UniProtKB/TrEMBL annotation:
One of its GO terms (biological process) is post-translational protein targeting to endoplasmic reticulum membrane. It comes from the Eukaryota. GO terms for cellular component: TRC complex. This is DUF336-domain-containing protein. Gene3D superfamilies: Haem-degrading domain. InterPro entries: PduO/GlcC-like, PduO/GlcC-like_sf, YBR137W-like.
Length: 174
């Protein structure tokens, strides 16, 4: 992980965000990897914000939880609701919830209408923080990492930077 106390600014152009996400493709992703990533996220969140945030890493194919932890005391049940809504968006559209936010300029009503979500619109969130985990040689999303509790661009960027660090560590292992 970076030693800087600040996150880089999150990209805001849909195409740039999706391109960045593709660079985060991992060589492998196991329960041990999820635990290491989750712990790194918790440490990073504690270094950048005094606010509590919830970290969740879940398998895409079964919704089995691999990691679920608060960064600090004070998370609320609402954080779990946001985690589920962001995860649902990533699983359905295969891109980060932040990418969807930027594509639709934060217009959740327009987003819901575009996809004819109707009464199910509340099951999805286009707020930053949900990021797909991709593995080289595997089609689609393998898992979803979600952070909920900070500003949505920060929720997104902390996950991106943690995945970047994980990719770098994997490359150094070779």
């Amino acid at each position: 992980m970076t030693t800087s106390d600040k996150l880089r600014a999150a990209k805001t152009d849909y195409e740039s965000i999706v391109a960045e996400e593709l660079t985060l493709t991992l060589p492998h992703f196991t329960a041990d990897d999820a635990f290491a990533l989750g712990c790194a996220l918790r440490t990073r969140l504690r270094s950048i914000s005094p606010k509590p945030a919830l970290i969740n890493i879940t398998l895409a194919n079964s919704l089995s939880p691999l990691f679920h932890c608060a960064s600090r005391p004070g998370v609320q049940p609402d954080n779990d609701t946001w985690v589920a809504r962001k995860r649902n968006s990533v699983l359905r559209w295969g891109v980060s919830s932040w990418a969807l936010n930027c594509k639709f300029k934060g217009d959740e009503a327009g987003f819901g209408k575009t996809f004819s979500l109707g009464d199910r619109a509340g099951e999805f969130a286009i707020h930053g923080g949900g990021v797909p985990v991709r593995v080289k040689g595997v089609e689609g999303t393998v898992a979803v990492v979600v952070v909920s509790g900070l500003k949505q661009d920060m929720d997104h960027q902390v996950v991106v930077e943690a995945l970047e660090a994980f990719v770098k560590e994997c490359e150094e292992e070779k």
